[in-house]
Amino acid sequence: MTVVIGLTGGIASGKSTVSNMLKNLGIRVVDADQISREVVEVGKPAYQQILSVFGDEILHQDKTINREKLGAIIFGDHSKREQLNKIVHPAVRKEMLNGVEEEKAKNSKAVVLDIPLLFESKLTHMVDKTILVYVDEKTQLKRLMKRNGYTEKEAKMRIESQLPLHTKKDLSDEIIDNNGAIEQTEKQLHEILKKLI
Ligand SMILES: CC(C)(COP(=O)(O)OP(=O)(O)OC[C@H]1O[C@@H](n2cnc3c(N)ncnc32)[C@H](O)[C@@H]1O)[C@@H](O)C(=O)NCCC(=O)NCCS
Ligand SMILES: Nc1ncnc2c1ncn2[C@@H]1O[C@H](COP(=O)(O)OP(=O)(O)OP(=O)(O)O)[C@@H](O)[C@H]1O
């Protein structure tokens, strides 16, 4: 049986860091962020829908979507964010399910769905077990500002557009505390995998 694991967290909590560890162990990770970039490429159905809602001022000169501009619009505006989610999420879900089916057909031991909005979008029905990559609020803010060069205001807007990580803690089967050193994170992941797979 293939165990379907939902990997989640908050923005900059360390999902990609953990997902790289999983890939190094030979486990397939289906990445919702990566798929959400692919489904809005020029010519894809979601691309047209985004343009009809947000206008062509959110495009680069080469007609690709300017993610910085779109991000600045949607992270500060709940209803615009909902509009974008409604366009992008169905296509992302479909691609993720394809990934799961492929791994099940191969009888793989496990497949991981890396979904930042696993709880917000009520997608837990897609997975057997959930793992949360947790950091405290101060660490999250610090790492996000450093990684993306955001101001505190820009970073907070993004963090506040998601459920707080302390709330996600209560909803998760397993928790990885990623406040410490990477080695500690890796150790916790190995312990959890021993239990789940
Ligand atoms: C607004 C966009 C263009 C900004 O792009 P950008 O390259 O700056 O960010 P990226 O896509 O790498 O996302 C970074 C992180 O932001 C958070 N995030 C992204 N979209 C959302 C959202 N709609 N609501 C809350 N948090 C979000 C996630 O934690 C994600 O890991 C992009 O995030 C997007 O298209 N979002 C809508 C699709 C979506 O919900 N993606 C997340 C998982 S499906
Ligand atoms: N244990 C750690 N110690 C120090 N820095 C870390 C640790 N874990 C992750 N980081 C750094 O924190 C930042 C965020 O981590 P990462 O990109 O893995 O988060 P993410 O949850 O995938 O983010 P996003 O949702 O935005 O894609 C990165 O710059 C990463 O190098």
TrEMBL record:
Binding positions (ATP): 12-17
Top enzyme category: transferase
Name of one Pfam family that matches: CoaE
Enzyme Commission numbers on file: 2.7.1.24
Keyword vocabulary terms for this entry: ATP-binding, Coenzyme A biosynthesis, Cytoplasm, Kinase, Nucleotide-binding, Transferase
Pathway info: Cofactor biosynthesis; coenzyme A biosynthesis; CoA from (R)-pantothenate: step 5/5
Primary site of residence: cytoplasm
Compartments, as annotated in UniProt: Cytoplasm
Reactions that this protein is recorded to catalyse: 3'-dephospho-CoA + ATP = ADP + CoA + H(+)
One GO MF term attached to the UniProt entry: dephospho-CoA kinase activity
Family: Belongs to the CoaE family.
HAMAP family the UniProt entry points to: Dephospho_CoA_kinase
Function: Catalyzes the phosphorylation of the 3'-hydroxyl group of dephosphocoenzyme A to form coenzyme A.
PANTHER family recorded: BIFUNCTIONAL COENZYME A SYNTHASE-RELATED (PTHR10695:SF46), DEPHOSPHO-COA KINASE-RELATED (PTHR10695)
Protein name per its UniProtKB record: Dephospho-CoA kinase
